Amino acid sequence: MAIKQLTVFVPNQKGSIVNVTDALSKNNINIRALSIAETEDFGILRLIVNDETNAETVLKEQGYLIKVVDVVGVKIGDEPGKLTEALTVLDKADINVEYLYAFMTRTEKHAYVVLRVENNQVAETALTDAGFQLIAEEDINKL
User: Which structural domains are found in the chain, ordered by start?
Assistant: First the structure.
């Protein structure tokens, strides 16, 4: 049930991010979640989009270096402590969370969180066994 994430390496220069978002928008690709981390010379832009295959093609044609990574998406209640509950489940299952970021959603009752972990299948089992609802590619398309 993993979600496909695009990891795009972009120069750390003025206009770099807008060039990526512009290329996606011109090809009718909608961004559902994003995160960026920067170094002095480049940024690592992580994207969840509604059409990963097309986005990968478009950005590669623009000359970007891209890596597609499977990540886990989990729906959590939008109240204090719910993220901690999900992370505690993974901690108790001895799963390291490498990074996480949130989705842009159209609901006020839930938050959607993207998790990069060592083992997606083990993380998904631990989370569903603890009562958390996972997010699938189909859910992203409904946002």
Answer: 3-69 (3.30.2130.10), 70-142 (3.30.2130.10)
Estimate the share of the chain in helix, then strand, then coil, as percent rounded to the nearest 5.
Answer: 35, 40, 25
Please check whether residue 127 is in contact with residue 134, taking contact to mean a CB–CB distance below 8 angstroms: yes
CA count, 13 A, side-chain hemisphere, 39: 6
Reported pTM: 0.77
Closest CA to 83 of 94, 74, 71, 93: 74
Q: Count CB atoms within 10 A of the CB of residue 76.
A: 20
Successive 10-residue mean pLDDT values, the chain, 143 residues: 90 87 95 86 91 96 94 87 94 94 69 76 91 82 70
Distance CA 59, CA 23 (A): 7
Q: What is the DSSP letter of 88?
A: H
Do the beta carbons of residue 26 and residue 88 sit within 8 Å? no
